[in-house]
Protein 1
Amino acid sequence: MSNYLSAFDTANLAVNGAIILVVAIGLTMAFRRRLGATSRRVAFFLAMLSVGGIIQATLLRDPPTVSCVECLTHWSLDRLVSGHVGTDTALNIALFVPLGLFATLLWKAPFRVTGAGALLSLAIEIAQPLLGVGANDLADIAANTLGAFLGAGLAAVILLVRDTIASRHLDLRRFATLALTILVTVGLAVGISIGGADAVRSAGAEQLNTMFAGTTRADYQRNEEAWAPRLEAFWKANRTPTNDAYNDEQVALQRYTWTFYWTTRCVVARWDTDGFRTEAADGRQCTERLP
């Protein structure tokens, strides 16, 4: 589902957009009595538009090619466990935020809406290889579910503020549930990001210490070319971190920098006259120029 921005640069966008609009209007009119208040009708209409936009971006973006039934037996975990995130991840999150927002404003059930968003994402990931319009990826499901959750959370805050203003009374139970959910979510996100980044850095430092224990700056100078394949193998085995180096008559440095879900960690391999050691660093230290 990555690169779904191309969905907005297709020849059939106008036709698909018109169909989505007509269907959203038709469904809203069909359920107008059951929906009741105008605000609920508007929320339902916007939720249907959100679903239509998701379908356009994921299933109608490209012309169908060859179906891949066997793809459904392979669900890669590489993107999830690597911690590599980019524009495609942010876009996949953003894609489901409107649905989570408007559906929760309509049904006032943020957790159910989040679950429905996850099921919709799963259905799309199954349909993509079957229709030949994309590949199935667990990372996309995780990103979409997070987007639905964020949208639902935003709607829950809006609903709480609205009801508090209308009644001039704060529902402490709802407030506590919302606050606890936010704290747990933020705590888990920070914990996974920092813990994962620390684990990757520790594993990298341990491997470097095993590879080069007992060596010195002189060994590095004599064996720099011979060690290049070993360092390249380390780089490939450790999720291709960003690499930079420094070398003078006194010291040789090789720095490996990882970003795991927005948390940056790095290890500096240091050879000097006293021997070899690794130095752990994080944040801005990992982006400063080596001396």
Protein 2
Amino acid sequence: MEFERRRRKNGRIDLAPLVDIVFNLLLFFLITYSISLDPAIRVRLPESETAEARADEPIVISLTREGGVFLGDRPVALEELGGALQAGLRLAPERAVRIRADREAAVGLLVQVIDRVRTAGCSAFSVVTERP
């Protein structure tokens, strides 16, 4: 005896499971994506065993190994650094200044920046390092 097979008139694929998988993948990547808090200026920090972590929002000065000086994320000439710091410290005199110097930056440039920070009226500054 021969049975007759039913033929489907609608041969479509259900897309709901595919949409669920795509949304789950999107959610997974959004949750696991880590946002970097460091600025885009690439500086390799020297290591220090006695480094302390601080939670306040300081003024950040970055020194690159090529001799570039950045106040926050904008480049600034060394001669203009003192005036820019004084303007920033007038708004919040209790803010600390952090100096992020590349480990291959010239020591003379670092000393000049420290002098500019002190003449701007800031006594609470630190040189940022990283733990080994």
Protein 3
Amino acid sequence: MKLKFKSAEEFRRLLTALLDDLVDATFHFSLHQDLAKATEQYATELAQSPTFWGLTLSAHMDAVLLRLCRAYDTYEHTALNLRNLLDTIRAHLSIFDEPNFRQRLKGNLFVDSLAAELKPPDQVQLQKDIEVVSNSDPLVHKLMMWRHNYIAHRNSHFTLNPKKFDAQYPLLFAEIDVLITRALEIGNRYSLLFDATAHATLMVGRDDYLNVLNSVREHVEASEHRLDEEWKRLGTHSPRNLRGGASTD
């Protein structure tokens, strides 16, 4: 389904909105994976607030799936999704022509060199891109099953038989990574052709969560030290040392 737009600026807004969603999905997925990897090294620290960290992990994955389902949505009409955007590009190839490109970048000092490298969208590649964001693609189909039965709507049958849904449509972290990478590659492909820009996925502060966990570690160690000192003052051994476990406030 072709999307309607009145100007190059409106097309840019559509493309940017879709890419922003995908970049956000990347950030949330990266944080989810990093936190999951930290569970072994910071097991004691995470155990101080298990409810908070459990909900945090769940929220990050919900944010990922929501944005992915929105990007790969197969709904037509006015929905901003990858399939509709690519159909729109195929119907308006002239917006990528050099005169239009130069007009969009008329204030850019490097417009001549950028225009010299400019190529129109490859229609063979465009068709391949359409195919891999369509419901006929196995991974997209699986994601849409999650959308229709769990994310956007909760299927009552699968609610009563959750193991059946998991067995039919297991969605692995590696597959989520593929879907995110694929969508960003496609979006950036046409963003570069449109106005020589691409959305980066380098997240500033990606390891901020380590500051929190290390602060908790310092608190735990300080609490343990105070307990040890108190037991020494009382002239006996700390129960923590006798049990070989941790005992903190």
Protein 4
Amino acid sequence: MWTDFVDLIYVALFTASTALGGSMGWAIAVVSLAARLLLFPLTLRLAYRGLETQRALRRLAPQLEALRARHKKDPRRLLEETSALYERHGVRIADGGALAGMAVQAPIFLGLFGAIQRGVANGGRFLWVKDLAAPDALLAGLCAIVAAWAAALAPNVAAAQRVPMIAIPALLTFVFLARVAAGISVYSLASGLVGVAQATLVRRRALQFEG
């Protein structure tokens, strides 16, 4: 079944490539963007839910601190009281909906990853990239910038944490993509740009909460 799923995505890539003049690079960009946009309502809803949970935890911070002080010698009682506090205020740390959302996203992105690897096996040019099957440092760098951009938009981050929060995703993105086929970087760039749009909407929602 998994092989059939990857085959289906590969057929979509091949069809898009044919429609786009034989460019596998543009096909990867279009199919990746379409997949990310298809999941966008789900990922945005999950992001909004996470934002609401963070907001609730900030409101409960004084009560949580009081519980920690009161039951610092009784971890079991602390856990029980904390769970009861969360339940009274409708806070769900282990959100089944979020887990289900990740379970839906993972197969799609893994399938895309596998189909793209197959699609670029024979190489091919794309913009300045001479071979989609080989790494491209410039494309990896652009993906790293997009990752940093999305991270920079994260709301409610302490000043001391902002630099590492931006730098670490960018560095990890570059290190990974600089070693894999450029076709994977095309996918990452298309998906990352949608991620920036989502981060912008989440930041706007956070500012509305604060206002």
